[in-house]
Write a structure and sequence with these properties.
alpha+beta, elongated, 2 domains, eight-stranded antiparallel β-sheet, 12 helices
Length: about 375
């Protein structure tokens, strides 16, 4: 039986090993993207100086609107407890566009977006730097990443079966990485013992990551948790592309109520991660139970700012909870900095497994004829 698993382990690893290395390496690079981006682009995420009380949200929206094209609207604002963090204004287009603004001076700091390095790492991790075909054809980068990840699961499981020792003494020796016993022993230890140390974490990453690769897998995966996935229709448009000047004047009355809603929520949510206010709705991100996308939701009257409906995280549909947990597990964010460091190290070690495997395989191919 082990001979069969050994062949599966080898012949699934050889053609897809490089792709697996790229996926794991790029995933490791993305673990601390937020912290590194905020450090390298500090002026975009933090104000130069705290000047007393922030300007009202409608005033900030009015200032930001002057720098935007006529067909782009401000759809929401995200505010953080840290008084030094800039306000984040979400835009109607392009998709997921966000503008940073100094809440004390009204100065527009710029667009919040991925740096070129992290953008490349994200595209490499998800699509091997490919892009979705405009004609609706096969998205080969996404297919290759998904297929490689699925086979990686099989490779990890077969690797454990191959490694599994029969005696405790052998078990102890097989978990050692000997750095002082020669290059071959070191590479062998990194591949075998290193793989055993991180196999569970890599399986979690792979099994959750597949939900972004295949529709059939996503449906089955969430179905196992009692969540029914809905098919998404076309992408939401950016609204009328003509002049929006009249609409903006009408919206300004609603923006004035955003400040009222924010003050109500801030007064009762002192330990939240952030507060987002949009057109008639608001969310308070709280990172409860390790779900980094967990939040309480509110509905308010657009004209008076009065909150008319509240749903705590516990009352939200299971869909949002499970999807948030899947994201948190995949990225290692559920346990704070400790789990993220573990996920980072496991991803880096995962990236070396195909490389050390290639070394051991090629060395065996070379040594066989010499022994004969």
């Amino acid at each position: 039986m082990k001979r069969l698993f050994r062949k599966l382990h080898l012949w699934l690893s050889v053609p897809f090993g490089i792709v697996i290395t790229l996926i794991c390496f790029s995933g490791a690079m993305l673990v601390f993207e937020k912290e590194i981006t905020q450090l390298t682009r500090h002026s975009l995420y933090y104000v130069d100086e705290v000047h007393g009380k922030p300007l009202a949200i409608d005033v900030l929206v009015a200032n930001a609107s002057k720098s935007l094209p006529a067909d782009v609207d401000i759809r929401g604002v995200t505010i953080y407890p840290d008084p030094k963090r800039t306000y984040q204004l979400s835009l109607s287009r392009p998709q997921k566009a966000t503008l940073a603004i100094d809440q004390y001076t009204g100065e527009v700091k710029g667009m919040v977006q991925r740096t070129p390095f992290f953008s490349a790492m994200f595209k490499l991790h998800r699509w091997l730097l490919g892009s979705r075909p405009e004609d609706g054809g096969i998205f080969w980068g996404k297919v290759i990443v998904g297929t490689s990840t699925l086979l990686f699961v099989i490779v990890l499981v077969t690797g454990v079966v191959i490694w599994w020792p029969r005696r405790i003494k052998v078990l102890k020796n097989s978990l050692k990485i000997k750095f002082s016993s020669g290059l071959h022993c070191m590479w062998h230890g990194l591949h075998v013992a290193g793989g055993v140390y991180v196999v569970l974490l890599l399986l979690v990453m792979a099994l959750t990551g597949l939900t972004w690769s295949f529709d059939w897998y996503r449906t089955a995966f969430y179905g196992a948790f009692g969540v029914e996935m809905q098919q998404h229709g076309g992408r939401g448009g950016g609204g009328n592309k003509g002049s929006r000047h009249g609409e903006r004047q009408t919206d300004m009355v609603q923006y004035a109520q955003w400040q009222t809603v924010y003050e109500q929520l801030a007064a009762s949510n002192h330990n939240c991660v952030s507060i987002t206010v949009a057109d008639g709705t608001a969310t308070v991100a709280n990172n409860r139970y390790g779900n980094t996308r967990g939040s309480d939701s509110y509905v308010f009257d657009k004209h008076t700012g009065k909150i008319v409906q509240f749903k705590a995280y516990d009352q939200l549909p299971r869909t949002g909870k499970v999807r948030g947990w899947v994201y948190s597990l995949h990225t290692g964010m559920f346990g704070g900095i400790a789990t993220r460091v573990l996920w980072f190290l496991a991803s880096l070690l995962g990236a070396t497994l195909p490389l050390t495997g290639y070394y051991l395989w090629i060395r065996r191919l070379i040594c066989k004829p010499l022994k004969r």
